[in-house]
Amino acid sequence: MNDAPQKLEPWQWPEEHWRGLVNHVRAGRTLRPKAWKDGARCAFAISFDSDHETNELREGGQSIGRMSWGQFGNRVGVPSILKILKRHGVPATFYVPAVAALLHSDEQRRIVAEGHEIGIHSWIHELNSVLPYEAESDLMLRARDVLDKITGVRPVGARTASWDFSPHTLRIEKEMGLVYDSSLMADVDCYELMLDGEPTGIVELPVEWVRDDAVYFMMHRFQSLRPYTPPEGVLDVFRREFDAAYAEGGLFQLTTHPHIIGHRSRVWIVEEIIRHAKARGDVWFATHLQVVEWAKAHAA
Ligand SMILES: [Zn+2]
Fold first, then answer.
1. What is the three-class DSSP state of 64?
2. pLDDT tens digits along 239-298
3. How far is the CA of 126 from the centre of ligand 1 (A)?
4. What is the 198 CA–ligand 1 centroid distance (Å)?
């Protein structure tokens, strides 16, 4: 990627500079299959980002109160979610920072034992965009090794913490031989990621803030951040996203967090969106990796 021309404001940048910025990481060919597995009309991929205490740690924070919020994710959030997934026979993907996996190793082993996927989610929920290449690469490699060692399964997919994608992230994922990423937002279907105009072979399973519980439910006592959408309103957004995906024969992807969605007044949303999708009958419930593999193999 070309460097910013010194002393120039964005409106003075030469065309090759702004084109270079835009084209560095880009969506390539769309990977929407003609049909999903077993002839299903729609794919349903739900994910849980088990950040737990790392949300506080990554800021250099030492708040015991917010750390206990992270522990809630492990003690209450994940068990409640696993109970719902088991009741409905739905596989899911959990993205886990290495530090959260080291703090809660039994949780990760249980998740894998119950048939779910675990993906890379940074070391300590650090933001990639502030890191030099060497540090980001080192943290990604170490994070993969930790998850591999704890669960016995080598993760092949990554989600950047806070969906913060640096200019080096895709190159690192390619060097690691990852199968897919799930941090970017250029489509509603899976697509192949392009690096400086070249296909990488890495599949993006796109996310979106509208399909993320944190957007609606986050709260900070000493800042103005407050939940402003009632749980029924959040379900309504998710349901509309699903209904449109179903109508189009596409993919419904959802991101939630055990320490956020796991509360009694919210966790029913997970069950309700699964029930709603199940009522359609021809929906394929799959992990993110299963969706990616199917989309790549059967792209129309
Ligand atoms: Zn996260």
1. helix
2. 999 999 999 999 999 999 999 999 999 999 999 999 999 999 999 999 999 999 999 999
3. 9
4. 29
- Looking at 95-217, list the stretches that DSSP marks H as alpha helix, in order from N- to C-terminal side: 98-103, 105-113, 133-151, 169-175, 213-217
**Rounded CA separation 257/35 (Å):** 30
119-142: average pLDDT = 98
Residue 284 CA, ligand 1 centroid: distance in Å:
25
Distance (angstroms) between ligand 1 centre and the Cα of 162 equals 5
| Mean model confidence pLDDT for the chain | 96
pLDDT more than 90, % of the chain? 95
Helix, strand and coil content of the chain, in percent to the nearest 5, comes to 45, 15, 35
Length of the chain equals 300
Distances (CA, A) of 181 to 66, 161, 177: 29, 12, 11
